[in-house]
# Entry
Amino acid sequence: MCSSPTPTRRWARSPRSSRSALGFVFRPLGGILFGRLGDRIGRRSTLIITTLIMGVSTGLIGLLPTYAAIGVWAPILLALLRIGQGLGAGAEFGGASTLLAEHAPPGRRGYYSSFAQTGVQIGRVLGTSTFLLVTLLPLEAQQTWGWRVPFPISFAMIGVALYVRLRVAESPVFRRLERDKQVVRMPIRETLAKYPRNAVIGIGAHIADTALIYLVATFVVAYATEQLGLEDRTVLLGVVIFGLVVIAMAFGFAPMVAVRPAFYAELFGARVRYTGFASSRELGAAVAGFSPMIAAALLGAMDGEPWLIPLFTIATCAVSFVAFWLAAEGKDVDIAAVDPTQETQATQEERA
# Structure
């Protein structure tokens, strides 16, 4: 006789889980579309566009009418906004990291670009903390209007982000490409033609940390509340503490993600860096983004026994380990090179 699905497995089949996956599916497309813009019109200009798309999409989620008010249009509009989030997110990190890496002085690329990853972790902590405050409301208030409150805060964040980004100069590397008429028309084509190996490495390199983050942020929350019976606020507090530990600790997860922006920037030449960075990283994120659903399926397959989930996590780490192992050392790469794999030392010295 077949046993009934566990609560966590039912969550994996739920519309909420599907909406979460929807954003991940569109992230690689966002990396390709806006990566092309970043390699054609500039890193800074593209980041301003993605800020508006992601911020407005997030803010409008909290203002959506209910199903009772507009019927089937409610989930349709929610899906469209999740797609907008996915498209914007697909180019945000790659663009910000590229801009930081290309502004960095010699010998400081890793340090400068690591601030992009620090911002991600701080954002996760702030976002989870906001929802933690929502759990302090009565249950009825949470379900009717409380869940909406964090989303419109995104409109204020748009203002902060635009204030900062409008005051950042365009990348000197991109300005040089424009001056030398080296801007490429189809960066994704050149990425695949010149850097196929590095593109695959970029995909694999982002699987471990994405899987871990979303297992903690979504699967663990669902498992702890639905399977173990813990209160939402207790679990969310644990997620916040985990995020703070990630920011503060000087070993393990934090160093791995801190050097990631510089690592990706060094994989691709200047003409296609935004596209190569964003598309490969976000394709890895799209693959790893399904990890909560995979974990829930493994839990259900083992009738609630969770021992397969650590093995799955180890497997994702193994994939990223192999990707890093196969990558060439990039600390001496000339970040301004049109094609660093072919640029000679003499050319680098001439540019200097």
About this structure: The longest helix spans residues 73-103. Residues 1-5, 11-18, 343-352 have pLDDT under 50 and may be disordered. The CA atoms of residues 69 and 132 lie 28 Å apart.
